[in-house]
Amino acid sequence: MRLADKVTIITGAGGGIGSGLVRRFAESGAKLCLTDYNLEAVERLCDRLALPDDQALLLQHDVADAASWEEVVRRTCERFGRLDVLVNNAGVAARTGQPYDAIEFEDWRRVMSVNLDGVFLGMSAAARAMHRTGGGSIVNIGSTAGLSGTNGGAAYGTSKGALRTLTKQAAYSFAIHGYDIRVNIIHPGYVWTDFVRASASARYGSEEEALKVMTAEVPLGRMIEPDDIAWPAVYFASDEARNVTGSELIVDGGRRCRP
């Protein structure tokens, strides 16, 4: 298996992209610490996937809290003996479509604390554990919203744009200081999760109409699914990518290629 016995922390494991990550990492042989602010969502997912107890540790986790990160890493290492992979998937969105000067600072800070501060804290805590056992791999989940301007998306887009730069800074630092920790980032476009399905269906009047409108914007003509994010993450986490660090992968069906 591509990730046989690699000890992996996945944050935001109970969400739409998270569920795809959990499924494919489990199939690839990883030992999993699955965290989420909403622990019940992770428990339901593990029940559906029938993950054995010896493969998965489930923890409630506030990624914006340094002490919570230290606890997650400590308990992961206690349970499995080491830490090989961290997937920073947890994230929150912000209201869109509003003018820049209508964005509230409280909303700005909420988004930054999870999407950016949470990854900074996670990489720091994970790196200390990985360095003790010879290195590892960190996979950050960004967004195409961080690559250009969006309508009213200053908070979310900025958090993901900063995460893109943070990924490269961490990758370079870990490399030149001999940590042998690789750091890469995946930028999903719109992913057809339950949340997107519900919100888009409400916006366009039906799921059928939502799919029609949204797929028309994708050159490949199909929506992005959670698996489309999970499989690249498996690659970045695996030894196949042993010389890949500081890299980014856009998964958006070709939307960024449009003239």
From TrEMBL:
Xref: PROSITE patterns: ADH_SHORT (PS00061)
Alphabetically ordered keywords of this record: Oxidoreductase
UniProt keyword Oxidoreductase, yes or no: yes
Protein name, per record: NAD(P)-dependent dehydrogenase (Short-subunit alcohol dehydrogenase family)
Gene3D superfamilies registered for this protein in UniProt: NAD(P)-binding Rossmann-like Domain (3.40.50.720)
Transmembrane segments annotated in the record for this chain: none
GO molecular function: oxidoreductase activity, acting on the CH-OH group of donors, NAD or NADP as acceptor
Claim: Oxidoreductase is one of the keywords in the record: yes
Alphabetical list of SUPFAM superfamilies matching this protein: NAD(P)-binding Rossmann-fold domains (SSF51735)
Assigned protein family: Belongs to the short-chain dehydrogenases/reductases (SDR) family.
Pfam family, one: adh_short_C2
